[in-house]
């Protein structure tokens, strides 16, 4: 059985809209694919340890989809595990982006409280894939209307990846449900 690992973004959860849409698509059209969609730890080192542990337990084939900060993690998975990845409005430099969010946080889905610190920004910088060699195995889905991230950073970083860029849209990626079947085909699951 093939496996799809779905990685949610910052302060999100397996109950995010895109995760639910992917789960519904697989249930209806590809019940032969196991979906793993963990509640990721709130802090970077702990989240990566959790993701790596899941990946270490997988056998080929498996693919990964990540949204926002999940796209950052999906890129690292593609680099380290040699799998295909789809990144949706990905965070390219979360250590810069999230520096504005330092302090107490509350995940709106889980209500978990935690404190985001400078140490966490250093962890993100250390975990970043600075010179990715996996870009031929990545598909970038990007909407220019993303109100959280500058889409040009993703276009620059993923310059050799397969790219689908749309005018308009938002950070949630409007119309994601129309891409689920294509994502599965790209991941070769």
UniProtKB/TrEMBL annotation:
InterPro entries recorded: AB_hydrolase_fold (IPR029058), UPF0227/Esterase_YqiA (IPR008886)
Protein name per UniProt: Esterase YqiA
């Amino acid at each position: 059985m093939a496996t799809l690992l779905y990685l949610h973004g910052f302060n999100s959860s397996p109950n995010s809209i895109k995760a639910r849409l992917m789960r519904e698509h697989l249930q209806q059209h590809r019940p032969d694919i196991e979906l793993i969609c963990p509640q990721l730890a709130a802090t970077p080192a702990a989240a990566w340890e959790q993701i790596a542990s899941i990946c270490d337990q997988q056998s080929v084939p498996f693919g990964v989809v990540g949204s926002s900060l999940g796209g950052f993690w999906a890129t690292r998975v593609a680099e380290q595990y040699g799998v295909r990845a789809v990144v949706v409005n990905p965070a390219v430099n979360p250590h810069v982006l999230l520096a504005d969010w330092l302090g107490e946080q509350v995940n709106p889905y889980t209500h978990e409280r935690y404190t985001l610190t400078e140490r966490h920004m250093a962890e993100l910088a250390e975990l970043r894939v600075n010179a990715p060699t996996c870009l031929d195995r990545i598909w970038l889905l990007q909407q220019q209307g993303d109100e959280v991230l500058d889409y040009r950073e993703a276009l620059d970083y993923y310059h050799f990846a397969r790219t689908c860029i749309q005018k308009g849209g938002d950070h949630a990626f409007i119309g994601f449900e129309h891409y689920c079947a294509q994502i599965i085909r790209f991941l070769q699951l």
